[in-house]
Amino acid sequence: MTERNSRTVLLRGGAVYSPADPFATAMLVEGGRVAWVGSDGAAEAYAQTADEIVELDGALVTPAFVDAHVHATSTGLALTGLDLTGTPSLAAALAALTAFAAAREQPGGVLIGHGWDETGWPEGRPPTLAELDAAAGGAAVYLSRTDVHSALATSALRALTEGLAEQPGFHADGPLTRDAHHAVRRTALARLTPEQRRAAQRAALARAAELGIGALHECAGPEISSEQDLAALLELAAEGEGPEVFGYWGELSERGGVETARRLGAVGAGGDLFVDGALGSHTACLHRDYTDAAHTGTAYLTAGQVADHVAACTEAGLQAGFHAIGDAAVAAVVEGVRAAGDRVGADRVRALRHRVEHAEALDDKTVAAFADLGLTASVQPAFDAAWGGPDGMYVQRLGAERAAALNPFAALLRSGVPLAFGSDAPVTPLDPWGTVRAAAFHRTPEHRISVRAAFTAHTRGGWRAIGRDQDGVLVPGAVASFAVWAAGALVVQAPDDRVAGWSTDPRSGTPGLPDLTPGEPLPTCLRTVVRGRTVHLAAAE
Prior knowledge:
This protein has 541 residues and is of the alpha/beta class. The strands form six sheets. A five-stranded mixed beta sheet has the order 2-6-20-23-24, covered by helices on one side. The chain has a five-stranded mixed beta sheet with strand order 8-9-10-11-12, sandwiched between helices. Strands 15-16-17-18-19 form a five-stranded parallel beta sheet.
């Protein structure tokens, strides 16, 4: 970090979310760490010697958020390129592509977009290859579906991808899945210039900082990005102008994943190490057929491969992790981690807190296994907000009964499974308060958790997921990574009718958080600070 770490900054006149003092209104930062929290009256003793005084004017100070699962380059490309998220119809998506292709500054290269979702379109289908080519005007175009587990590719891009027709998941006229999708994605991303990649990564980090996010877990790998992409992102983050970035490299140990993770400076050999795909693309691996398709999805790894990888990572003292969404995929992870524990020692496996990304389809037995094996559930509440409910994609794919069992956050929390919240951006956007709201107001009431628990999962939970239990909380001695918010009344909000008088009574001794009831405005970030250095400051009105 390049800012003067010896500076002393006093923040006063607001509300500080701190377990050290539930009534704190002021905080002192020295040398990039929290030095003190307390009352405005007591803060007067520090006012004369502080290098800077920040008048909060009633604003809320909290730990900065941690987004525990992102893809920074793809997020930046969605922010700066063609974003089809929320496009209301197939016709509208094609029109947006035509306009985007026409506006490019010079021909050549590959146009990249993201976010289409046919499940909400009145046409009920993705475009044909002929429709896509016509809309693109002959350009090479890659358009990832909202779940990033299938994509549309024009004929020009397909022609650039050697051996595409022989790859599993190839479709002559429709979206590409599995290995065919990975192949066209590699082709598209390989044609990004270093300048394009850096601009996209800068855009993603800047957006995160604007939203009060102080740290990101980048989930990279040979099938989702590249070594060069992760190395460039970690180098950019090290310049210290935005959030911290912790990298994961999703490649099996038998293919050199442990060594590559070490070489790149990744904190784990996991993240998007795919055991299966996604529900929207019909590639999540299930025990029973999809309701709207006569198959059970795709299994990329076996329980034996999971066991080998976890054992190798444990022997190396490195965290492992897997992308697993469907119940069959999650079961394979549990079976594999248990087998690895039998092989190298269950306590050694538990100590590394190996991760499962997404972990959407779990029953009570699987939840109990997560707790027993010391697994961290790295989950995305915005998935339920986007695709849950009686008319959502989950019901289309699985039927009402199985859909209602997805994303059981309350059961995980009750069982003591550590939760780390993320967005999987660009699958769902960077939106930390929206994520907390989605968990607290889950579309299936029995899966709801309190706002306080959800906030903890999106702050301290992200640090615990990488083994840094001391971070993500504003107490003396802690790293000064925090955000300042314009927020309304502060309450202690439970996920049901237990929101009562005690929840806003200061005698409860529980620090309050913003009211996240659906329909209420979300807090606005005024300032984001990472290790004592300001990385975002909202413009004065």
